[in-house]
Amino acid sequence: MLDSKNIDLRILSSAPQGQGKDDLWQWKIWQDCSYLTCNLLAKWQHGFFTQQFYPRLPEELRTIWQPPTIAYRVKQVHGNIVKTPLEINLVIEQDIKDLADGDGVISEQPQQSVWVASADCTPVLIGDVQTGQVCAIHAGWRGTALKIVPGAIARFEEFGSQKSNLRIAIGPAIAGEVYQVDDYVAVEVGKTIIADFQTEEEILNTLKNLPNPPILEDVLPGKVRLDVPRVNQIQLEQLGINPEHIAIAPYCTYQQEDLFFSYRRTGEKKVQWSGIVSST
User: Fold this and answer.
1) What pLDDT, on a 0 to 100 scale, did the predictor assign at position 62?
2) Which of 29, 53, 47, 26 is nearest to 125 (CA)?
3) Taking the model in full, what pTM does it have?
């Protein structure tokens, strides 16, 4: 377990360079290890952790924040299921599993920490400034194609949340400029933000002509570069979320190998964790 005594928790004023709303992001230091936070989520203890914390699990990482919380996570399956701690516990008890399947966890009580792992896929942390409820989401291209983030927003609404009260931080992931995928992958993801389905070629052309396009050209035929965080941002905006309440981290897991693991870069099954603690 991490030693929660005499914690050295500092804010690093000079963050690594990146593109985007840099003023919304801060690095914090714990015992010479850094994790990223977003000012939109300042109400909550939270963080997008770097590879420096590996191989620690949320059950250990939770003790960095005080008071320590119960950590909830799922067995990530690249789907669109978002579970509550109660639902997780029921699955574990009934099916005698160590973890319930899912790709998101939404709190239901104060002082619950919810976690997801990633190594190129997009981690998303959400908080409701009115209720204090929070959610952690693992949104790879498959989960994004299945609209897991809009599904998480729907779960907030089940609990009585108003979209105007939600604050959303989209964490470090593989940048679109280096994420080469087959055309069919971009089409499956792109369908989620295009009202009228068209031919594959028309869908790709529509995506390429959007403002700040979520896909870019590739030199190889049948390939494009896919910006998954941008697609999630568009999905949220199409739900009516205020763009000012959404932030995308200006860091790439693939390109910044000193900070993050990247499955696309190394093929290793190593992850970094992202978590957030619900408040009253």
Assistant:
1) 96
2) 47
3) 0.94
Tokens 């009585």 belong to residue: 160
Count the helix, strand and coil residues of the chain and give each as a percent rounded to the nearest 5.
30, 25, 40
Question: Amino acid identity of 258?
Answer: D
Q: What is the per-residue pLDDT for 104?
A: 98
Alpha helices in 122-259 (DSSP H): 141-145, 148-158, 183-190, 200-208, 228-238
Query: From CA 136, how far away is CA 231, in angstroms rounded?
Result: 17
Question: Cα–Cα distance between 153 and 166 in angstroms, integer?
Answer: 9
**What's the length of the chain?**
280
Neighbour-count burial of 19, counting CB atoms closer than 10 A to its CB (0-12 exposed, 13-18 middle, 19+ buried): exposed
Between helix 183-190 and helix 200-208 the angle, nearest 10°, is: 70
Q: Among all chains, which residue has been given the structure tokens 């952790």?
A: 49
